[in-house]
Amino acid sequence: MSKKLGPAPEAIKAARLAAGLTQTKAAALLYKTCRIFQMWEAGDRPMCPALWELFLIKSKAPAQ
Description:
Largest sheet: none
Radius of gyration: 11 Å
Distance between the termini: 25 Å
Mean pLDDT: 91
Shape: globular
Structural class: mainly alpha
Order of helices and strands: HHHH
Low-confidence stretches: none
């Protein structure tokens, strides 16, 4: 069984910017902290694919 990887850090940042959100506001959409969002964008921590899909839905950002 293959494990699906989360989005690339560049895709996370691009989607956030396309939605016109700050890191703080983007994190709030997912009930996460700004620091966690910073870590996702820096590539220090992988973003769960389910949270990625939820972010795209809630932010109405175009899929990368």
